Predict the structure.
Amino acid sequence: MKNSLRVVVIGGVACGPKAAARIKRLVPNSEVTMVDRGSIVSYGACGLPYYVEGTCSKIEALVETAAGIPRDAGYFKRVKGFDVFTRTEAMKIDRKNKTVLVRNIDTGKEDTLAYDKLVMATGSRALQPPIPGRELENVWYMRSLDDATSMVDKIQAKNLSRAVLIGAGYIGVEMAEALKERGLQVTMVEVFDQVMPQFLDPEMSMLVAGHISKKGVDLALGEKVLAIEGTGSVSAVKTDKRTIPADLVVIGVGVRPNDELAKDAGLDCSPKGGIVINEFCRTSDPDIYAGGDCVVNRYIDPAMPGPVYVPLGSTSNKHGRVIADQIAGRAASFSGITSTGICKAFEFNIGRTGLTEKQAREIYPDVETAIWAGADRPHYFPGSKNLIVKLVALKSSRKIIGAQIVGQGDSSKRLDVAAGAIYFGATVEQVGNIDLGYAPPYSPPIDPIAAGAHLLANKLDGIAHSVSPIEAKQRIDGGGVVVLDVRTPREFNARRVAHPDVLNIPLDDLRERLGEVPRDRDIFIYCGVSLRAYEAQLILNAAGLDRVFFIEGGLAAWPFKTTSSKQS
Amino acid sequence: MKNSLRVVVIGGVACGPKAAARIKRLVPNSEVTMVDRGSIVSYGACGLPYYVEGTCSKIEALVETAAGIPRDAGYFKRVKGFDVFTRTEAMKIDRKNKTVLVRNIDTGKEDTLAYDKLVMATGSRALQPPIPGRELENVWYMRSLDDATSMVDKIQAKNLSRAVLIGAGYIGVEMAEALKERGLQVTMVEVFDQVMPQFLDPEMSMLVAGHISKKGVDLALGEKVLAIEGTGSVSAVKTDKRTIPADLVVIGVGVRPNDELAKDAGLDCSPKGGIVINEFCRTSDPDIYAGGDCVVNRYIDPAMPGPVYVPLGSTSNKHGRVIADQIAGRAASFSGITSTGICKAFEFNIGRTGLTEKQAREIYPDVETAIWAGADRPHYFPGSKNLIVKLVALKSSRKIIGAQIVGQGDSSKRLDVAAGAIYFGATVEQVGNIDLGYAPPYSPPIDPIAAGAHLLANKLDGIAHSVSPIEAKQRIDGGGVVVLDVRTPREFNARRVAHPDVLNIPLDDLRERLGEVPRDRDIFIYCGVSLRAYEAQLILNAAGLDRVFFIEGGLAAWPFKTTSSKQS
């Protein structure tokens, strides 16, 4: 008689427990053993910044089920029926004999676990940049529950008040909010010249930076950290431009996959790191599966050269499910990711899915983009907030391949619609035609994502002649052009593009004041969100002027300096 | 030389102005004339309940652009370049000579407008049920700006305090909130035995009804209104069961398309009403287009027998765009709707897209459904709220064909994801694998829509053995079954399914207390949201019990009576 299926799972945070629990559901008589280096398994690591902020006040909640039951080894055994060994490190995989050598970190005791199928969910770790002083006290990476609790305890006990964040990615941005809300002074240092450099195109990034600055965070962009200084505990961060006093440092410059165990076992790994898996989450060894933060993912678009590394808890859970189905002999596959991410920074909701314009242009020769700005609900509905939507599409196929959505409005909803659209290979027309829910408390009749798609379609069709804010700025700074503001004089006086010579003709008067518009120069038009500017472009076109462009997203998406009549 | 393109647009609310403005954009030298019966065009009719509620305090905002410019005839001429005749009724279409006879309502003056292309956007009107007394004062249909302003004025001037709403559809539900928030007593009468009968399946509807009742609205379901009583103004509403005192009545029993003009002109109309259009929004006359509330729509799924009537401002705008493109000779089409709708009732967000289970079963022989309940964000994140998701799919294709999402959580986002999924013909597996945005302020790692899809997949695969709350209730009431609550005794004592004999074994203890579970009866298990109940089902299955089902959505989706230990 055949023995029951033996499964060993290495790693107990997201993919591991998901796979283990589902294997037990699908194959009740299987013997599933999960090992994890830590003392706590299956915790909500993404909640850590919110514990520091004080939004989530109970750190225990991060390791409990929704019903308030601690997800400890006993819980998994009693409820899910599998064994968990915490504080247990997987040392070596013997693929020939199908065993894993494990060692208890506290006792040093070693053991050998036999498997029929092995699941590697070894996770990731914070990238530790080679900065002198990174070992000082009060330097955190914000990866574990202990990072969060120790930081909060220290802030309270030692009255730490000056924080420097190294890196302006997810962790940096979320911790900027968290520490600022706790009342600390916060400086964010980033070696690239924009926040969220891997995540957003520059003009979208500048909007985020503007919001973060307004909230009182000092941004030090394009600055390289040379050292963390201090005796015992940190006292300053030295960059290539200055020295910033600091009681507390958070390093958030990225994570890297824990793929060493897989490499040692001879499994295929990506040159840049990360276990390579196929659409069944299987590694190069047919009896070993891998998922979660330790793997590189297939990108949904086959044009992408090679896999991508985007570690996220949502993807880890999907991997875990597919791994369990595969091990149980069920058909299941994971078709890939679209690099979707979302992040809150104060009142800004920052989302991105698919490719940025920069990424798209590296792969495709026929990229077109459009930036749309406007309210997330009907303008008459109180509490409606602006969103800035940037869409990236291909001219030939008209498929949308990327979306960036930022602003105080509900970007999360539009992001998920865009993620679905890219997943299903939708064209700009299809995105405009999805039958989205409409009622004033939720959205305007033409949803921002549809409005963005319409603009992009108009641009692809040569109806809308528009330029991005960055292109507009370059052209305006180059001189010899007309900048035309088609808002009312009141709006114009209150706030406008900072330029010595902006022509103001309200849209309402434009047909009658056509004579005032120079015919011998390129004209760049804007308004609040560029709805009126688009109309103005068409009026000028109809009047025979054809060197006319509107600035996409208007003032709402203008990331550069603005001025008012009092200041000028 | 050919004359410029002459376009006449009948109707000035949503589809009409959209089409007219875009035609002028695409064909600048066209002559576009829009006529409308009303004195106000292009207003946000969907905002009316929010004006009554006091949420939107300026009625003018409903007729202004986002920039605060009134959308009157002068605005359209100056900005959009087309002519608008208000208070002007289209009397007759002469298709042979391609003219429209129009008449000014105030002066009686008639005129004949010649067209090359005609756009019919004649809208809809409230269904006036044959109830005696509906002509009394203080009876409203809530269709025009005047309805909203006169109602608010009357409520204030005459101190109207008792409202009866006839019909529990969109208008009824939105006005129930609006009038309750204004401090009125509100009774909602509905001839069907559920709220939103066309929109939701019964169990989802019962959850909405429960919330509305809790907010103090009296529900009179399954009651037929026989008469509205009063002398001059309304004093009561008489139903087949009782007489309800009333100072104010809102009739919201549906709308019907204004298709008479089209019918008179011999254009194809649906037997139930509504102009028939093809995917180019063209009527049976190739020179006449129609869109907005006056047409019936193609449903996206060709299995649907015949077109459907779902008038919505969002669809009207899509029609207007396609009509303009077609008239301008550009390729554009409208592939159809998925009957998406969303509506707010107090703190409940009520969404639906695709087919209800009832509708699906009328068309397909192999329908499966699943109800999932849970939080819209990680349980540890403050402010996370429950959602109840019902998905409808086909067993053979595994395609999702319907979704209903209700609750205090963010249903709007999941609704739009589901609308996209149905639009693109997604399977349950695909919905589970879309790379949705994940961060604690926005969603749990497994988004509710994905979790619902997973449950449905598990059910289709025979892994999850579950029943809907309605089926469970029927089986429990039939007797001879075991009802098993697998929550903690504390949860059990606080609130549980109202039944004289509910067995309580916490999930944590279930493996050790298997002996207490009867083996000779069907077992129906539940917990808070049925996550634990699902685990319990699998534990009992593994222990050899196979007549085991969990109740989908647990207590969160249980629309029937509950009890506590004190009461029992």
Q: What stands out?
A: The first strand of chain B starts at residue 6 and ends at 10. The radius of gyration of chain B is 27 Å. The mean pLDDT of chain B is 94.
